[in-house]
Amino acid sequence: MHLFISDLHLSAERSEANEKFFGFMEGKARGAAALYVLGDLFEVWVGDDELKEKFSGTVASSFAALTKSGTPLYLMHGNRDFLLGKRFCRATGATLLEDPTVVDIDGEPTLLMHGDTLCTDDLEYQAWRRKTRNRLLQAVFLATPLGGRRWISAKVREKSKELVAGKPAEIMDVNDGAVREAFRRHGVTRMIHGHTHRPGKHELEVDGRRRERWVLPDWYDPGGYLEITQGKASLVSY
Ligand SMILES: [Mn+2]
User: Fold this and answer.
1) Entry pTM
2) pLDDT at position 55, please?
3) Cα of 197 to ligand 1 centre, how many Å?
4) Which of 75, 136, 142, 163 is most buried, judged by most C-beta within 10 A?
5) pLDDT tens digit string along 6-40?
6) How far apart are CA 112 and CA 37, in angstroms?
7) How far is the CA of 65 from the centre of ligand 1 (A)?
8) In Å, how far from its chain's centre is CA 82?
9) Peptide bond before 145: cis, by omega within 30 degrees of 0?
10) Residues at Cβ < 5 Å from ligand 1 ion
11) Are the beta carbons of 198 and 220 closer than 8 angstroms?
């Protein structure tokens, strides 16, 4: 059984989601063939020194317990936690995956993405994404004391909330052309991503082949995961 989750947006303040998360880690995830976290595990992550915080440390310990029990953990960056780095991976036993990555799941090449790169109608966001993924800018940001980084990130989130509120719902979803292009470029018939918070299974045909796009749920309300057992995928919601 392979498990896929994303968009948990964990933070110390949201105890309901946190309880579900720890329950999932100690229950469902134990004994899985692998757990894939496809981005936005944390509401915000301004650098691996966040591990000093009690809550982040507890999350890391629960991942470490899972990997020690023999279940591999794969982590992909989202748009809120793309600064998860080597220290976090060392502390948890996680392997960081590039976005996008194709993995073999029960013999089926499966394209994994966070999903934000498919939202190409949101030009403003794509421009912001390019800036924030610049290594040099990241190094400058990470050299700032933790308090300063938190302050900057709170300001950025405030601004982003304003911008998102003014955007029509369509541009916040994936672009159909970008989805088709991703299927073509990677030559796969199955894709799994999160980010849009619109869980579901979408079937489409690209170049005469049937393709499946699975969108993971967020963990606000109610939360859930995608499970693939012997090649059969299903979305489970709490
Ligand atoms: Mn996201």
Assistant:
1) 0.96
2) 96
3) 8
4) 75
5) 999 999 999 889 999 999 999 999 999 999 999 99
6) 10
7) 26
8) 9
9) no
10) 40, 78-79, 195
11) no
